[in-house]
Amino acid sequence: MTNTYDLVVIGSGPAGFSSAIRALDYGLNVCIIEGKHLGGAGIMNGALTSKTMYELSMDYAIAARIDRGYRVSSLSVNFEKVKKTVIQAAKEKQYQMLSQIETFSPAQNKKGALTIEYGWASFVDADHIEVRGKEGTKLIKGTNFVIATGSRPRLYDGLQIDGERIITSDGILHLKEFPERMLIIGSGIIGCEFATIFSNFGQTEVHLLDRSNRVLPYEDDDVSSFVSRNLENNGVNIHHTATLRHIRKHPEHLEVVLDYHDGHSKVIEVDVALVAIGRVPNTEGLNLEKIGIELHKNGTIPIQDDCLLRDGKGTCHVYAAGDVTGHSQLYSVAEFQGRLAAEKIGDIPQYPLDYSHMSTLMFFKPEVAAVGANEKMLQQRQIPYKAAYYSNKLVNRAIAMRNTNGFVKILVSNDDEQRILGMRAAGPQASAFIVSVAHLINQGNSLHEVLKIFYPHPSIPEGIQECLRTLSGKSIYKPEAFPDLINIREWTPDKE
Ligand SMILES: Cc1cc2nc3c(=O)[nH]c(=O)nc-3n(C[C@H](O)[C@H](O)[C@H](O)COP(=O)(O)OP(=O)(O)OC[C@H]3O[C@@H](n4cnc5c(N)ncnc54)[C@H](O)[C@@H]3O)c2cc1C
Ligand SMILES: NC(=O)c1ccc[n+]([C@@H]2O[C@H](COP(=O)([O-])OP(=O)(O)OC[C@H]3O[C@@H](n4cnc5c(N)ncnc54)[C@H](O)[C@@H]3O)[C@@H](O)[C@H]2O)c1
């Protein structure tokens, strides 16, 4: 028997799940198909598990401090117990998802019902997909489809992932103990987050391979240097301008050969190597060619602003959302796109997708948050701007916390209006207040409007207020008195 649904969603990550739930809101009968972990990389081997491990590692690092007038008399950490806590967090979320799936099961609801099928989906034709599960193959008919199949770690050419000693982020929870020595290949967000986590626990000698001369290559130099410095202060050995020649596996260790840009090479010994060089879209095996969908060269699915795919004949009832679309690979983007696709299917009013005020959190020590444009982006687009930097060393709340390693950097348009274009913030609570600036960017706010607002004291966001005041020459503390802690720069295309 072929089951028929108003909407079939392939993938239960943030894009797929949000799409399915939004479609229930207006009474569609929906089927989600999931091949592996409920919740995708949003939960398992991804955002939630890595963030749980990060929080545990930060707690451990605080407990290990000896500079605050207190000292823990004995401190130890057990990797198996850390893993158990991490998996517990993932399961907690999966059970919430399952509770919702059960609440909206077809047995309980005639309209607005949700079914989950476990197995791998591929298109048979434009209206049918086949699902290969443990119990055999099922044919499912859909009026509409959302492809939300996410992404997986990119592999390193010539390096075999064995899942035990040479792993990707999918293999972290398969480790049996803290490695004594670990090489992380790739100094993007995942590489720097795991370098932070493993160095926080203090059980692992961490080596981070950075093929350029700066980690987080897409961020501005000051942000990259800040992150690099903090990683090094946390004990991470960063190998800048180094590429991996090869890894020789020995019974007890891995022998790693690194080649540096200046021509010299270095051989180091580690126990585990983690490959974190980006993620590739999961589009293989979907049989998209059968429904006339042509992929981008990098395998991502080309979508329009409304997440709809066009099949070359101009019409289609297939949408795509999340990492598979090649937009920023972030939980919030996946969720937003998934909801938008469902709203489009329901033909109900949608918020248009606007990536200009998108924010990202980076879980380092301290945390770093980003919203809107950075200097690199504005320079590429030839947009004149002013940048103001204000250090947390001047912010009373940070002083009280004895935690002043951080800053805010705000970019505004270099015109009379001084519209806020972007911010980078680092230090305690940066992840909590970044969204307030996303609102300011979204509303097209200028400095004059923002400065009417009272900022509560003592609070970390007072740094934002002072940074904005600095831009209009009205700050309480002046760049002349604290040139290392407060500064303003201007950039215009013709001055380059
Ligand atoms: C280690 C790590 C940490 C991260 N941390 C953060 C963070 O802190 N903040 C943040 O914003 N983002 C973070 N991300 C990124 C975030 O997890 C992803 O952007 C997000 O999960 C993408 O959602 P998605 O729904 O598009 O895909 P996914 O979450 O990848 O879900 C896709 C699902 O589809 C399933 N699937 C694939 N093919 C098929 C098929 N043919 N049939 C059936 N099912 C299929 C997969 O099994 C998977 O469950 C992190 C990612 C990783 C790897
Ligand atoms: N906190 C968060 O928001 C968060 C956390 C984790 C992951 N993510 C998402 O997951 C995505 C993937 O993360 P990622 O860190 O794997 O990718 P990334 O694109 O952030 O970084 C990849 C890094 O690997 C380097 N690299 C690429 N090829 C290489 C090679 N052959 N040798 C050495 N280095 C190489 C790149 O220069 C870059 O530094 C991110 O783009 C991000 O959107 C987000």
Automatic annotation (TrEMBL):
* NAD in keyword set: yes
Name the UniProt key words of this record, in alphabetical order: FAD, Flavoprotein, NAD
Q: Which residues form the FAD/NAD(P)-binding domain?
A: 5-338
Q: What are the TM regions of this chain, as residue ranges?
A: none
Q: Which SUPFAM superfamilies match?
A: FAD/NAD(P)-binding domain (SSF51905), FAD/NAD-linked reductases, dimerisation (C-terminal) domain (SSF55424)
According to its UniProt record, which cofactors does this protein need? FAD
Q: Where is the Pyridine nucleotide-disulphide oxidoreductase dimerisation domain?
A: 359-466
Domain of life where this protein originates: Bacteria
Q: Which family does it belong to?
A: Belongs to the class-I pyridine nucleotide-disulfide oxidoreductase family.
Name it: NAD(P)/FAD-dependent oxidoreductase
